[in-house]
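Could you help me review a protein record that somebody else here produced? This is what I was given.
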Amino acid sequence: MPQSEGNHSGCNTTSHPNQTDRLIECCLDNVTVDEHRELAASDTDVEMQYCLQQCGICYATPFLVVDGDVIQGVSHRALIDSLQEDSAHE
């Protein structure tokens, strides 16, 4: 995926009731338009930012930052599903 150049100071935050009480962050350069819509419509609170300073991972694979920890997966949907399953077992 192409990486953005320059300094992005703004962010677009999408808020929904957070069932997990976790801070989940997503880099907008790491999602497709369809994934962005799906994440925004999900019942999980995902903060969308222009850059999370994880450029190597961002270029290579879908990822989220959860409470400061980077998690990677085959898709953002799979990552969100995994987080929701983990919350159900807590």
